[in-house]
Specification:
The complex is a heterodimer of chains A (84) and B (148). Helix content of chain A is 26%, strand content 24%. Chain A has 3 helices and 5 strands. In chain A, a hairpin with a 2-residue loop joins strand 3 and strand 4. By secondary structure, chain B is α+β, with helices and mostly antiparallel strands. Chain B is built from 4 helices and 10 strands; from the N terminus they run βαββββαβββαββα. The relative contact order of chain B is 0.24. The chains are: A alpha+beta (84), B alpha+beta (148). Chains A and B meet through strand 4 of A and strand 5, helix 2, helix 3 and strand 9 of B.
């Protein structure tokens, strides 16, 4: 199981703040996880489309498309940050 | 604690006094205070709501402070960032750096702010007469962080 956390605008457009998912075994990276989530269609396909500014953190560290994801990880999806 | 995330306000004088208390090496204190403005992108802002990602925020801020301390010869640094509902004129963020001389303290302080703006997981939502809207990230902030 992977815990997905959605923050800020993404939480609102996707309509959820967190969920637990069990992706297929071949989903082993951030890029693959996003591609798998896009297959849900609708807002998922639109918000996570390639080229959209989606940032990802794995276990509280900024991740890149090739960052590995595995069972037990917390993966957060969010828009570019705007603090300060 | 070199970094804090809190809903309440902060007292700049007290934070600076605590950071440099008893440290006779300190010859310079650089501080930056970010405030809520009443106008942004040509719209009046009545309320600014700040959200963050608990767990990651503190970690990201601590990494930024550590990076600043490794790059410049400074003694100590503090970041206080508020979350929740804020109003125009409210304080949002405080960065304080102590050092022997102003040059290193100024640079480390500016670096921390530039990195915070692009790497720490905070998001702003504005209430305007036309409704609420999420603040969009600015490329000028990316440019500022890329200088370092």
């Amino acid at each position: 199981m992977i815990t997905l956390v959605y923050l800020a605008r993404l939480r609102e457009t996707l309509g959820t703040s967190a969920e637990k998912v069990e992706p297929p075994h071949e989903v082993g990276t951030v890029a693959a996880l996003l591609a798998w989530l896009r297959t849900r269609g609708g807002a998922w396909a639109a918000e996570l489309a390639p080229g959209r500014a989606v940032r990802v953190a794995v276990n509280y560290d900024v991740a890149r498309p090739d960052t590995p994801v595995k069972a037990g990880d917390e993966v957060a999806l969010f828009p570019p940050v705007t603090g300060g | 604690m070199p970094v804090r995330v809190q809903t309440g306000d902060f007292d700049v004088a007290r934070e600076i006094a605590a950071l440099r208390a008893g440290d006779t090496r300190v010859g310079a204190v650089a501080a930056f205070i970010g405030l809520v403005r009443d106008i942004n992108d040509a719209a009046a802002v009545s309320t600014l709501t700040l959200e963050h990602y608990p767990g990651m925020t503190e970690k990201a801020l601590a990494q930024i402070v550590d990076e600043a301390k490794s790059r410049w010869s400074v003694y100590d640094a503090l970041v206080v960032h508020r979350v929740g509902e804020l109003k125009p004129t409210d304080q949002i963020v405080l960065v304080v750096v102590t050092g022997a001389h102003r040059g290193e303290a100024f640079a480390a302080c500016e670096f921390i702010m530039d990195y915070l703006k692009t790497r720490a997981p905070f998001w702003k939502k504005e209430q305007t007469p036309a409704g609420e809207r999420w603040v969009e990230a600015r490329t000028s902030d990316d440019d500022a962080a890329a200088r370092w």
